[in-house]
Amino acid sequence: MIEALQFEFMQNALVAGLLASVICGIMGTLVVVNRIVFLSGGIAHAAYGGIGLAFFFGWPYKVGAIGFSLLSAMVMAAVSLKAKHRSDTIIGVIWAVGMALGIILLDLTPGYNVDLMSYLFGSILSVPDSDLWLLLAASVLIIITVAYFYNDYLAMSYDEEFAQIRGVSVKFLYFLLIGLLAVSIVMIIQVVGLILVIALLTIPPFIAEKYSKSLFKMMVFSSFLSVIFTITGLWLSYVFNLTSGASIIMVAGTGFFISLLVERLTVFRSDHAAITIETESLDTGQEF
Amino acid sequence: MNDSIIELQDLSFAYNARPVFKDVNLEVKNGDFMAMIGPNGGGKTTLLRLMLGLLSPHKGSIRIFGKLPREVSHHIGYVPQDLHINRRFPVSALDVVLMGRLKPGRGWSWHSRKDRLVAHKALDKMEMGVYCDRRIGALSVGQLQRVFVARALVTEPQLLFLDEPTASIDTKGQREFYRILKELNQTITIIVVSHDLMILSSYVKSVACVNRNIHYHGHAEVTGEMIETMYHCSVEEVCPVELMAHGLPHRVLRTHEDI
């Protein structure tokens, strides 16, 4: 890995992976505790429609993707607020239609054929400098916004009704969250692909939640786990000459199953309910 | 001290096609300690949610402190009934209480030292001080209920709504709990939803019977007639003893006739 770092593409891959990890750690935590994983998947897939539009009409790629994602994300957010009981169905429809639209528009675009694989798994080994700056800008934007509204987001995620009674503008925060999510997802898709986005958004927070005493610690721990998964995955893909995105996901997936196994074993050994385990791990200071 | 702070006029509300209230009226005076009783599905929680601005009336008006509920909801402390929301959420007891310090348009939202002090005091008052760093998933339901009350107290409310707050607390704890409420009632108007008919008579000042209708009784007397209209059964079925007994009743449960 050390000798690999003399290549510029490897340095860029590493920096892109680190920045994506920070974004995913923060946004993923909010996605997991607000239970909007499915909505995130919808945004990521519908973004393909934006890519298709951009190529068909000859717009700059990012304008199309971000614009279309923001639009579809806002529709999904509105639907999930208005028609809660059927929102997953409608999100599923937007998910599929967005993707189909993208594919058909690319078919109709003369002389151009985007490789679907690079969209699914990204191309972390060919990230240009300009994308790194964009990623950095997105990370800064997300850190500042979430830090500013941290307690509001905490209250909204834990008990939306109480937050509303306290005068927290829950609707505004929800749309802001979805908007930030759409921007993050598009940025990261370009780098690591949509499957890795979903994996990094969900797996690290899922593991971190069990060992974190606060939302903030969960964000930090998730980012840290993402970094570990990304670096390990990159290293494995370099050593064994494998697809980098898929390697990172396999490492994250392995982490996921190990965490489940560890949880099982602890429950098994002490023969207590899961809640008791949590108490004990908190008391002995094992939490992160 | 005698002005009314809650005014409901010709209020109607329905969930989709299922009507809950039709043209109901209610007036609650400042300093009151009101119990809300009634059968499940009678609309007690719905009424609280209407007064908190979480639901909007289809007809009629609600005025709290002379304003719309949504405008003044941050002056209301609320202890919800459902304690099982998000038990696995990564948040400590102290952080839950601190949520009560949020205010509309607060801007930069880090908590001040004063906020923390107030939160610690409220937890101490509810005898939960030692658990302030505990994750909520590690608390018992009774402990969680105390944390929720502490969260309502740090809002420095002028009005306190509690939805079945003692459902998960044992009898001794309940008496202690109502003693604390009575103390709070010296400065705060309180509305409590409860089924504990016994406890009501010795602590509350008035009773509202809510069953698609609201009947307000300006004194804390639970009569057999009230039970009959509310629960569609006679006093003898609910409880075979005098409801207004001061001190300990001799029997609380219905006689088991089949034994």
Topology:
The complex is a heterodimer of chains A (288) and B (259).
Chain A: H1 8-33, H2 37-57, H3 61-82, H4 87-108, H5 116-121, H6 129-148, H7 150-158, H8 160-165, H9 170-192, H10 194-211, H11 215-240, H12 244-270, H13 274-283
Chain B: E1 4-15, E2 18-29, E3 33-37, H1 44-51, E4 59-64, H2 69-72, E5 76-79, H3 93-98, H4 113-125, H5 141-153, E6 159-163, H6 171-184, E7 189-193, H7 197-203, E8 206-210, E9 214-217, H8 224-231, H9 235-238
Parallel strand pairs in B: 3-7, 3-8, 5-6, 6-7
Antiparallel strand pairs in B: 1-2, 1-4, 8-9
Description:
The complex is a heterodimer of chains A (288) and B (259). Chain A has 288 residues and is mainly α. Chain A has one domain: ABC transporter involved in vitamin B12 uptake, BtuC (Orthogonal Bundle), CATH 1.10.3470. Chain A has helices spanning 8-33, 37-57, 61-82, 87-108, 116-121, 129-148, 150-158, 160-165, 170-192, 194-211, 215-240, 244-270, 274-283. In chain A, helix 3 (61-82) runs antiparallel to helix 4 (87-108), helix 6 (129-148) packs antiparallel against helix 9 (170-192) and helix 9 packs across helix 10. Residues 273-288 of chain A have low confidence and may be disordered. By secondary structure, chain B is an alpha/beta fold. Chain B has a single domain (4-238), classed as P-loop containing nucleotide triphosphate hydrolases (Rossmann fold), CATH 3.40.50. In chain B, the strands form 2 sheets. Chain B has a 6-stranded mixed sheet with strand order 5-6-7-3-8-9, sandwiched between helices. Mean pLDDT of chain B is 80; it is low at 233-259. At the A-B interface, helix 7, helix 8, helix 11 and helix 13 of A face helix 3 of B.
